[in-house]
Amino acid sequence: MPKQKTIPELKAEITANERQLAQLQHKQQQLENRAVYYEKGDRRKRAHRLITRGAAIESIASLTKVLTETEFYAFAEKALALPEVKGLLMEAVNEHNRAEYEGRF
Fold first, then answer.
1. Sign of CA dihedral 63, 65, 69, 73
2. Do residue 4 and residue 37 come from a single domain?
3. Do 50 and 97 belong together in one domain?
4. How many domains does the chain have?
5. Which of 16, 83, 92, 21 shows the shortest CA–CA distance to 53?
6. Are residues 101 and 74 in the same domain?
7. Run of H or E including 88
8. What is the Cα–Cα distance from 46 to 9, expressed in whole angstroms?
9. Whole-number pLDDT of residue 39
10. Residue 46 in 3-state DSSP?
11. Is 4 helix (H, G, I), strand (E, B) or coil?
12. Burial of 75 (0-12, 13-18, 19+ CB in 10 A)
């Protein structure tokens, strides 16, 4: 039969367990903070990409500045649906993929 622990031993065990619990809670908070940091980073990268590409379109086709958002989307849909534009976009994507593939080796 195991020996019963004394009150000071039990108090020391409680203190050690509380310390361990605090450490684990701190580690959990660190991991949650890291996840939020990476998530925000992805959103910031996307926002940056959208802003810079929108600015590029506006600088190349300055007449788009006068269009409303709805009008601009309608224009972009029509322009990107043209077979010539689709072909140019596909060429650009293929060139990107080719360069990325060659960069690996």
1. positive
2. yes
3. no
4. 2
5. 92
6. yes
7. helix 83-104
8. 56
9. 85
10. helix
11. coil
12. middle
